[in-house]
Design brief:
The protein is α/β, with parallel strands linked by helices. The chain has helices spanning 5-12, 62-72, 87-100, 115-121, 137-146, 161-174, 188-198, 220-223, 238-243, 254-263, 285-293, 365-374, 378-389, 405-416, 424-441; strands spanning 53-58, 77-83, 107-109, 127-130, 150-154, 178-181, 205-213, 272-279, 312-318, 323-329, 337-344, 348-350, 355-357, 448-449. An eight-stranded mixed β-sheet has the order 13-12-11-7-10-9-8-14.
């Protein structure tokens, strides 16, 4: 069954918003909200353990199908339901499970506007995995929690300040976890650096930088040619294109922000205070729309629209006087960049290429290798051993299909009744930068306060991210 764009928007509920294109969030509401009183602190909360984590998946597109592959490959997970308005996507994932991981036998939900609600309402599901367009995330998170489900959601948790608060307050009220997926310090060089920070290698942390920079525009073939065999899907993503219309700010801060937040103990020891944000003009997207509209009429409605500026730069100051720089650019011909720098009064790390310094000279590669081996944390050693024992199954292929240490630790924490190491306050903080940046950009870089979703609990919250694996670690890969 092929579904055109209009039908897809109708099925997912986007058409009911009254516009195909996003009108932006900068002026939708002011980002200010009075002080909140926290009714329950989800940081450090351990929900009753689940021997088997029964999962339902909402949104089985490019990323959502990868979510299915990854979590189906972890011990103690049972895939109960797959939901997407495009039947082909659900059928493809069902076929994959049947052939590769046949102990999973999920029910299929496709074609109905409210099918995702039916999945959330099931009593035999513990964890809902959300991989839908951004504007649906907050509503689906809230609905799932109100129906007694924990939530995994691709970033962001919400696209407005108010949506971020709604997700936080619902989690506090229902005592259901919200885990927002993005790059963090569970694995790779980020885990090593977090251990180095905690062991004092860098001294007192002063400044950090993180970005979401890579070229999603230049390659017409991979990004813009629509695939008739896949419901005319294209690599840039239909929903992402709509999000980039009439918006101007840092639209995707999480991947660069999450690791440095964990290294700076944000939400448990320090907190963002205020930020400013500025954007360049658009030098790429408008021209690209005119170019590709000549080859495909689908893009003609986008010609002449206003697009996000190429480069956004956001500067944040914390309550303890430290600074963060975030940048976003997916339109310029630049190599990829995510987490980039952590700097203290005793040393610095910089990425691409990875390097360390404790003075004005970079350490040699030999010294770098020796130090990073010394500081490799227990979580990395344990996870790598589990990968080896599983014969590297489901740890190769595209990034969306590889089981990450974060995927493994989420399930391991739920199965062992442990607090989540990325909680609802983290997801809200990392998401709210987008609407705040739009607000600041639209006001010529005016400073704006960052909401404290912990309601002051950051001052006493215990440190998160147990990279030493003092508890748990019992779950395997299959």
């Amino acid at each position: 069954m092929k579904i055109n764009r209009k039908e897809f928007l109708k099925l997912t509920g986007l058409a009911g918003m009254g516009m195909i294109f996003n009108t932006g969030h900068a002026n939708q509401r002011t980002p200010f909200r009075g002080p909140n009183i926290q009714k329950f602190n989800m940081h450090g909360y351990a929900a009753p353990k689940l021997d088997t984590v029964r999962m339902g998946f909402i949104g089985i597109g490019g990323r959502g199908s990868g979510n299915v592959v990854r979590y189906a490959s972890i011990e103690g997970v049972e895939i109960k339901a797959l939901c997407d308005p495009v039947a082909q996507r659900v059928n493809s994932s069902v076929e994959f499970l049947k052939n590769e991981l046949p102990w999973h036998n999920p029910d299929s939900y496709t074609g109905g506007k409210d099918d995702w609600k039916r999945v959330c309402e099931r009593e035999d599901i513990d964890l809902i995995c959300i991989g839908t367009p951004w504007d649906l995330h907050a509503e689906q998170c809230v609905y799932a929690m109100e129906h007694d489900k924990h939530v995994y959601v691709d970033l962001p948790v919400g696209v407005t300040v108010e949506e971020c608060w709604q997700v936080v307050e619902t989690s506090d009220k229902t005592r259901k976890h919200v885990y927002m997926d993005c790059v963090n310090c569970h694995g790779g060089i980020a885990a090593v650096l977090l251990n180095m920070v905690r062991q004092g290698f860098f001294g007192d942390i002063i400044h950090a930088e993180g970005h979401y920079i890579h070229d999603r525009v230049s390659n017409t073939g991979s990004r813009w040619v629509r695939d008739p065999e896949n419901n005319f899907f294209f690599g840039y993503r239909p929903w992402r294109l709509q999000e980039n219309v009439n918006r101007n700010g840092n639209l995707y801060p999480g991947h660069g922000l999450a690791p440095l937040s964990q290294m700076m103990d944000l939400n448990y020891g320090d907190q963002m205070d205020y930020m400013v944000s500025v954007s360049s003009n658009d030098f790429t997207m408008s021209d690209k729309m005119r170019e590709i509209a000549e080859m495909d009429d689908y893009y003609k409605p986008y010609v002449g629209l206003k697009f996000r500026g190429n480069m956004n730069t956001t500067i944040i100051r914390t309550h303890k006087g430290r600074t963060i720089m975030l940048q976003h650019d997916i339109s310029s011909p630049r190599p990829g960049h995510r987490f980039d720098l952590i700097s203290g009064n005793k040393g610095i790390y910089r990425a691409r290429p990875d390097r360390l310094a404790t003075s004005e000279q970079w350490l040699s590669q030999e010294e770098f290798n020796s130090i990073t081996e010394e500081y490799t944390p227990e979580i990395t050693r344990i996870f790598n051993e589990k990968v080896r024992k599983a014969g590297n199954r489901r740890t190769t292929g595209g990034a969306y299909s590889r089981v990450s240490p974060s995927d493994w630790r989420l399930i391991d924490s739920l199965r062992n009744g442990l607090p989540l190491e990325v909680d609802v306050y983290d997801g809200a903080l990392w998401s709210v930068i987008s609407p705040l940046s739009e607000w600041s950009v639209s006001r010529e870089g005016t400073s704006v306060k960052v909401p404290d979703f912990t309601c002051g609990a950051w001052k006493t919250n215990k440190r998160g991210m147990d990279i030493s694996i003092r508890e748990g670690g019992t779950t395997n890969l299959v």
